[in-house]
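Hi everyone,

Forwarding the result from last night's run.
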Amino acid sequence: MRRLLRNPASLLGAALVAVMVLLALVGPPLWEPAATRIDPARINQGASAAHLLGTDALGRDLLARTLTATRLTLGLALLATLIGTGCGVLLGALPALLPHRAGRVIVAGVDILVAFPALLLAMFTAVVTGLGARGAVLGIGVALAPAFARLTHTLTASLAGADYLAAARMLRVPRRRILTRHILPNIAEPLILNAAQAMGSALLGLSAMSFLGMGVQAPSYDWGRLLNEAFGHVYVTPSVVVAPATAVALAGLGFLLLGDTFAQAASHSRPPAGKPVLPAVPPAEDDPVPHAVLEVRDLTVAFPGGLTPVRQVSLTVREQEIVGLVGESGSGKSMTAAAIGRIVPHPGLAGSARTRLCGVDLDTLRDAERRSLLGSSLAMVFQDPTSALNPALRVGGQLAEVAVLHDGATRTEARDRAVERLARVHIKRPAQVVRQYPHELSGGMRQRAVIAMGLMGTPRLIIADEPTTALDVTVQREVIKVLREVVDDTRAGALFISHDIAVVSELCDRIAVMYAGRIVEELPADALHRARHPYTRALVGSLPDMGTDRSRPLATIPGRQPAPGDAPEGCAFAGRCALATGRCATERPELRTAADGFAVACWEAP
């Protein structure tokens, strides 16, 4: 409703539909006497004080007849929409119920009907079933059905590979029940939204049928019939077509705008109320860290509604160093990476006291300069290589695009570089792989191809956001080995994000532990067994090893971390911590650095 009121087009559509519905309810009782009163003395008159928009061939008031015809016009349009929707959904769902060969026949029939002009299909149906309101309604309904059938079939096919459908088939659930219980409820929303738009199309189609003499017949009348009757006198008294023509145009426009509004509203999640507000962060006063490829101070990310998934995070990554960022899902790790790469999704805001990449303060650069620096010096490896690579483009073309855009390389040079980079990440037959599509590669090869894409330039910082999550253990080790070799060969720094503390401890030089949007501990990777923060120790304790007693349940951390919109006054881990005191609940500990290189934010840490 909020989006409806903010959008002028949506508001106009809603207002037009509301007016038409109101006229359909009150029109016949109020204006039907004037609409049916025959006055031979006022036949085919133009606009006058007594008849604002003129009269017809029997002296009846055209404005009153138009207002009275609203009920019949909208009722027939609604009936045609219901017929078209019902028949279309049934026709589109049949392939999921019938054997494969019969389903293919129905799909081919729907394709033929979609290619056939809708109005001609409606006219043909009306001729077969008989002229009049019934024939017109059936014709328009039949004309609408193929589009709904195609949409239903497409939506049904998109769910064909869902696990819950596979489970239902394995349990021998009847196909009819699978359709009604598992498929139709999950595709109902787009069908309903298209039905709202189809209402406008049905109204225009029915008016066209009646105007051609194939729809509503006398003595009944709808807007199209009124246009048909007035058309013979339009050159003498042009005002006779104003009322029905305006009614058809406004009603059709109203339903189309309203249906489009519903579709747009359904395609976006509800935006949180308000605007994101970043806390005031003063510029950093300390000297920059020498030889650091990345230095972030007090990084904060905020979204509307008071959501702050990242809160005053400080990180430093030096040359040839891999820093691991570890924590539970929802702790803010990926959003930290997005803020560093300046890709925080709208409407989020990111701010910091200092963000330096390769010794350059990003906040002091113009947009073009910042994009150039990030494009050439920062490589990002995302969690899901399937979504990171465009399935419609060959792998080589996607890698080459980086070199063409950021380094000005020719297509031949970029392709040669792509082959060389793929070979660097240990992909066999790279000259063949550049000609393949992403779906032709295994998961491990796709992930290494994404790493190679990041190496197409000369990156000084590599951000790997959970690049091994969806891979098996063997492929995980290969990807970790590739990342380590890349860092050693290029002397770049790397920020490795993961929720798997075992993988992080094996690959990284230093580890930063993140909880509820903050860094709570930072320590050397080889000193993980001497962690001081209770949360870090709980993460390590929940990691099984060869000496774990298999007869006992695995260790877990009770409770859950606070949501991004909940910022407790004290320590965010206090509710789950066995060492928490009253001070922990009321006073938040700052990250304190000790002389041995450990940094911990805890009042009770040793």
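The chain has a mean pLDDT of 84.

Cheers,
N.
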